[in-house]
Amino acid sequence: MQWMIVNDAAGRVRYLGPTQVLGWAVIVALLCATLGAGMYHAVLRLGVLYPETAVGALVHQLVGEDWQRVLQEQVDVLAREVGTLQVRVLQMESLGQRLESQAGLPALQDRLGVGGIWVPGPALSVASMHSLLDSLRERADTGTQKLADIDGQWNVMQHIPLPTQHPVEQAVVSSPFGWRIDPFTGRSAMHQGMDFRGAVGDPIFAAAGGVIVARAHHPEYGHMVDIDHGEGIHTRYAHASAVFVQQGDLVRRGQKIAAVGNTGRSTGPHLHFEVLVDGAAQDPERFLAQGGAALQTAVASIGAPK
Ligand SMILES: [Zn+2]
Questions:
Q1: Alpha carbons 275 and 282: distance in angstroms, whole number
Q2: Distance 185 CA to ligand 1 centre (A)
Q3: I need a labelling partner for 303 at 20 to 30 A (CA). Which of 51, 119, 272, 283 fits?
Q4: In contact, 228 and 203? CB cutoff 8 Å
Q5: Domains of the chain
Q6: CA of 232 to the centre of ligand 1 (A)
Q7: Ligand 1 centre from 300 Cα, in Å?
């Protein structure tokens, strides 16, 4: 005996023998049984979780005297699932914390719920299960949101054009960033940038790509250029003898933008180089010392973009 099955789509004809038909029948029967069992447990659970509903009443009627036992069984099953879920939420939270610290992001204020694995006890009630599930749901939502935030901030950080290119060829530092004795007043003063020795006319390079936002002659900075690199990061190049860019120009990383000079408040030909993050001067060395821990620190000090 053979059954013929016509496959319309491919236009082919297939024949199935009795063994194959039996095989398929067994598979379908198993699927139905599994589905049935799954539905049976799903209905039982619904009834137990929501005893005041119609499903609850139905389940109560079905199991009759066994209600207490069924109830406890279902609560125990749920408790195990809640326990597993809780472990996964904790894992997600610790992953979030680790990512935050690796990305150098500032600690997020509203930390997720208090940790500690909850161990299911013997007499758990449906009410306690409800509240546990509610709190877990809340923590999972918050955790997902935090991870999305971290991901977004990390992406932004990856694309910040950090000023890591040395602005002069011969990077001989004549004065580092920080407190120093001012060469003009002889008093202690904050040096907001880094000074590189050079000869008049030596090229000055953009430390990163960006837009020229200022080209000016300043009484102290002399001929100067400001580049906006985005995300609140600016670099400033001062005391130049010549400037080769205009305000509004887009510049590439490493592009020649000016020439070393001795204009403004300067005691000799040099480049005064500043890195500003949200208007606050940073130690340029942390950016220029490319790669490794130094760059990490520089990235970390930027913190979360606003
Ligand atoms: Zn200086």
A1: 6
A2: 14
A3: 272
A4: no
A5: 39-159 (no CATH), 173-302 (2.70.70.10)
A6: 21
A7: 25
